[in-house]
Design brief:
This is 4-hydroxythreonine-4-phosphate dehydrogenase. Homodimer. It comes from Stomatobaculum longum. Belongs to the PdxA family. PdxA2 subfamily. This protein is an alpha/beta fold. The chain folds into two domains: 204 residues, 3-Layer(aba) Sandwich (Isopropylmalate Dehydrogenase); 124 residues, Isopropylmalate Dehydrogenase (3-Layer(aba) Sandwich), CATH 3.40.718.10. The chain contains eleven helices and 14 strands. It has a twelve-stranded mixed β-sheet, sandwiched between helices. Helix 3 packs across helix 4 and helix 3 crosses helix 5. The longest helix has 22 residues.
């Protein structure tokens, strides 16, 4: 058991389903077979979540430090942060500064633990960006670091780890995509397709695959324009920026990189096993195919049959994987939130933590 990575899991916004799916995931002893999980959050919120999901038998073990954790099936260890003043009065499925602050403080804490080496990997439940930034704006006078806004988890991690070069990877089992740009307008995304950034993402993708135990990664680089620009007929980004980046990566010894590949076919090829990872030029180019595969809606039941996928921040000095969905206010308090994405994220975090340790030992 001691050889299994310790994974710190944030509870997410307490107004959403993060606490509930955490209990559902950890109620299954199978999760303890590959890692040692500990929730970073408010133990009172986690006690409440037990009732929502019908697991009264689960024991919530309040911890002051990671060293206090038991890591035993049937017990959910919680590094307790007293974040919600009155759990019974706290409103679910509602944007609030209190909920946003709780989610933010959990993320800060788990980053601190990982940077200090107290956990081997971090895993995040969803936070609500509006709620978080509402809390940050209200609390700016009381905080010493001066930050009053974050776009999301990725930016928080980059800031508090001092990371300048990073990117987002989405994964559904062995189908993986990484991004040259994410949360910007499509117009700005096109302008950000530059040789230096494309090369940087290829390098990060290559290292991420090696961290997962893939010895010789096969990396496809998607084009930006239809048909990769048809030799300049529909745009010159492939000629002037993307191809030079690919050639530079090959010169560095990243021999498994291929492209530019037409975006309308490269994802089908990746699903067919041609590639280990696809470098995408902008947010939706990668998100749409990944979520088309991972998010499955049941027409007859009119509900989601599966909400799977993992969001991993690459380029950080610590491991961070996350659910690939939002706070899911709709299901909050109903006990029917889907825990599959969280379990997948825990497995990805564990795999990358093990891979990094093996790489460091070589």
């Amino acid at each position: 058991m001691e050889n299994r990575p310790i994974v710190g899991i944030t509870m997410g916004d307490p107004a959403g389903t993060g606490p509930e799916i955490s209990i559902k995931a950890l109620a299954d002893p199978a999760q303890y077979e590959f890692c040692r999980p500990i929730i970073i959050g408010d133990a009172d919120i986690m006690e409440q979540a037990k009732g929502f999901v019908g697991h009264p038998e689960i024991r919530i073990h309040r911890c002051e430090t990671v060293a206090d954790a038991l890591f035993q099936p049937g017990t959910v260890d919680v590094l307790h942060l007293p974040l919600i003043a009155d759990v019974n009065a706290f409103e679910l499925a509602k944007v609030s500064a209190e909920g946003g602050n709780a989610a933010f403080q959990c993320v800060k804490k788990v980053i601190e633990l990982a940077m200090a080496g107290e956990v081997d990997a971090t895993c995040t439940n969803a936070l609500n960006k509006e709620a978080m930034n509402l809390a940050l704006a209200q609390d700016k006078g009381a905080r010493s670091d001066g930050y009053t806004h974050f776009d999301g988890h990725t930016e928080i991690y980059a800031t508090y780890t001092g990371t300048k070069k990073y990117t987002m990877m989405l994964a559904h089992h062995d189908f993986r995509v990484v991004h040259v740009s994410t949360h910007v307008s499509l117009r700005e995304a096109c302008e950000r397709v530059k040789k230096a950034r494309v090369l940087e993402v290829i390098e990060i993708a290559n290292q991420a695959c090696k961290d997962m135990g893939i010895e010789n990664p096969r990396i496809a680089v998607a084009g930006l324009n239809p048909h990769c620009g048809e030799n300049g007929l529909f745009g010159r980004e492939e000629i002037e920026e993307i191809t030079p980046a690919i050639e530079a990566a090959k010169a560095e010894g990243i021999t498994g990189v291929t492209g530019p590949c037409p975006p309308d076919s490269v994802f089908s090829q990746a699903l067919g096993g041609w590639y280990d990872i696809v470098v995408c030029m902008y947010h939706d180019q990668g998100h749409i195919p990944l979520k088309t595969v991972g998010f499955v809606y049941d027409r007859e039941k009119k509900d989601w049959k599966a909400v799977e996928g993992v969001n991993v921040t690459l380029g950080l000095p610590i491991v961070r994987a996350s659910v690939d969905h939002g706070t899911d206010f709709y299901h909050a308090g109903k006990g029917n939130g889907n825990e599959k994405s969280l379990i997948n994220a825990m497995k990805y975090a564990t795999r990358m933590a093990i891979g990094r340790k093996k790489g460091a030992a070589r």
